[in-house]
Amino acid sequence: MRLLPAFFASLLVLLVPAHADPSIDAGFRSFLQTEIWPEAEARGVSRTVFDRAFQGVAPNLELPDLQLPGASETVEQINFQAEFKNGSDYLSKRALGTTVRTGRELLARHAALLERIEERYGVPAPIIIAIWGRESAFGNAAIPHNAFEVLGTKAWLSRRKQMFRTELLAALEIAENGDRPVNVMRSSWAGALGQPQFMPSKFLQYAVDFDGDGKRDIWNSVPDTLASIANYLKEHGWQTGRDWGFEAEIPMSVSCTTEGPDQGRPISTFVTDGVSRVSGRPFPDREIGETGHVMMPAGRMGPMFLATPNFYVLKAYNNSDLYALFVGHAADRMLGSGTFSTGWKEPDSLTRGDVAKLQSKLVALGHDVGGVDGLAGFKTRRSIGKVEREFGLAETCWPSRRLVEALD
Question: Which residues are in the Transglycosylase SLT domain (predicted)?
Answer without folding.
Answer: 28-332
